[in-house]
Every structure is written in C-alpha cells, then in structure tokens.
Amino acid sequence: MLIGDVARQSGVSARMLRHYDSLGLVRPTGRSGAGYREYSSEDIRRIFHIESLRSLGLSLREVGRALDDPGFTPSELVDDLIRQTRERIAAETELLTRLRRIGAVEPTSWEDVLQIVALLQSLGSKSAGKRQRAALSSVEEVPVPVEALVEAVLSETDPNVAGALRWALAQSGDGGLALLAEGLGSPVAEVRKRAVQSITEIPDGEATALLRDALANPDIAVRRYAALALGARGVADAVPTLIDMVVEGTNDVDAADALSALASRPALADRIAARLVDRLAHGTAGPSARRRLTQALADIPGTTASRALADLSHDEDRAVALTAAYILGIRDAR
Fold first, then answer.
1. Which of 44, 72, 100 is the last residue of a domain?
2. What residue numbers bound the domain in which 306 lies?
3. Beta strands in 17-142 (DSSP E)
4. Which of 38, 92, 226, 302 could form a disulfide with 211 if both were Cys (CB 3.0 to 4.6 A apart)?
C-alpha cells in the first residue's frame, strides 16, 4: 500500500509518516517499481500501535522504546504519565481559576487585568507584608474577586494579615458567604475557625442566619464564636451557649458581656437571669463556675437577678456569698 493510501486509511498525514520513517519508527517494508514507499499490513498495524501510545501522552522516543525494547517496563512509564497528567491538570485548573476570577471582576482594560493579576499574586506571596497590602488594596484600589479573598482568608495564618483580609471581605458584601459556609464544614479545625471569624465581621442578615446555624455546629469553637457575635447582634438564640461559656470558663468575660447586652432588652433580662439561676441550682457546676455565674448576674437587670443575688449572699460557698453581697451593694447604690 502506498503512502497516500496509508495516510487516508490511518488518519496519519503523509508528512508524519515520512517523519516516522526518518526516526526509524515505521520503515516501509518495500518500494514500488517507481521507488515509492510501500507499506505492508504489519507496517500499518505498527502505525496504529504508535498512534495508540501517542494518545496516552508518550513522546515519539518513548513510543520507540515501548515497541522495540524487550526490557521496557510499561508500568513504570504509565505511573510517570499519571504523575505528569495530574501535574498538568493541576496547572490547568489553577489557570482556569485565575481566569474565572479575573473575569468575575469584569475588567474594562488590560491595565485592570494586569493589576488584578498582580494583586492575586500578592495574595499568594510568602511575604506577610505583601499579603496584607494586597488585602487593603483590594478595597482601596482594584477589587479582588470575592472567591480569591475567601480562599486567602481561610488559609491565612498571620493574625494581622487575617484581620486585613476579613475586613476586605466584609467590605465586599455578602458575596463570599456561601463559600464561608462551606468553610464551616471543613475537616480542618483552623479553617472552620477562620470561616466563622470572617462571618462574624459581615454585618448582613444572611451572615446572621449563618451564625444561627453555626450554633449547632459540631465544632464547639465555632459555636462559641457564633454565640458571641449573635449576642452582640441581639439574637437571643445565643443565650444557652453563652451561659455554657461562663460555666466552662472559656471567654467567660466576653460571654458575660454579651449576656449583659442581651439583657438590656426588658423581655430578655428575666429569662437570662432565670437560666443563670437554674445553672447555679443545678448542682453540677463547681465552685469556680458558681462564682462566674454569680458574677454574670451583676449586669443583668430586673427583679429575678436581684432576688437570686439576695439568696446567693447567704450561700454556703463563702466566695459566692461575698461576691453576691458585693454586687447587691453596687446595685442598691445605683
């Protein structure tokens, strides 16, 4: 079969077949009377083998080894091809992500594109200073895609840079909330913590709804951050978690302050005081926890808190009794 017929049958161009010949990959078995290359059925079969191996990503040199070297080990080469393909996919995915983020900002000029690229590169810099400047620039100069800000804030370890990123994310609106919500379900505790911290700084109704949901998160740290933020926003759902924090002695001062802020609403004051009293009477709180609960009653207005403090001023635990008496004295002097 002549080269033109082989090209039509195999789909390999005549030029490439000549290239294969020059490399010694497929040498035609014979020549016609006019000196043209003639391919046998075995030659054509070898061409199909070459094309099959090339489709896997093998170079022509590797194809030659695979077909002609008796000691060739295909498993090693396949493993290497898998590694190379994964690296290529990762690189292409990174490029696609970068292009998508640039497109999301809807740049109007190439100067905008270059500035966005520079900011994205700075967000991934090893220098904390560069990352922090990029976070601030994303609000003051060229906007950075929200997706990039969320990715940066969820991976940031430097507290100063993290603060700048959270601020930038809060200025961008609620566009990153869905991604932050995914962060709350991360298997990595630090990522969950960064996600909830970022949500607490977004003053938005959807953010508040996410924080309400976070009160049921399996991660106790997430629940605590959510409760403190919700307390500051006047959401009564946070009360049980805040009281737990007082009992456990974890950020108990902040938790007591949040309870006090909530208790400024008359409808909540007696409910909060009753819950604190219930924990005091429950019998499971240790001496230090009972003192913290008593101290938490100090800034809870209303008759329920006052009656509880009067009872506690006679408590068997002298420290609790003295604390309650001292608080009562201050309340009476107001």
1. 72
2. 234-334
3. 30-31, 37-38
4. 226
- Could you tell me how many helices (H) and strands (E) the chain has, helices first? 19, 2
Q: Would residue 188 count as lying in a domain? A: no
pTM of structure = 0.69
Spell out the per-residue pLDDT of the chain, length 334, in tens.
Answer: 788 888 988 888 999 998 988 888 888 887 877 777 888 888 988 888 888 888 888 888 888 888 888 777 778 777 888 888 888 887 776 666 666 766 766 666 767 777 777 777 887 888 999 888 888 876 666 667 788 889 889 999 999 999 999 998 888 777 789 999 999 999 999 999 999 999 999 988 899 999 999 999 999 999 999 999 999 999 999 999 999 999 999 999 999 999 999 999 888 999 999 999 998 887 667 889 999 999 999 989 988 999 999 999 998 889 999 999 999 888 866 6
Return d(Cα 307, Cα 276) in angstroms, integer.
Answer: 12
Q: How far is the C-alpha of 174 from the C-alpha of 201, rounded, in Å?
A: 11
Cα(282)–Cα(305) distance, integer angstroms? 16
Please check whether residue 232 is in contact with residue 258, taking contact to mean a CB–CB distance below 8 angstroms.
Answer: yes
**Per the structure, how many domains does the chain have?**
2
Q: Which two tokens stand for residue 260?
A: 């006090």
CB count in 10 Å sphere of residue 272: 25
Q: For residue 255, what are its two tokens?
A: 């938790």
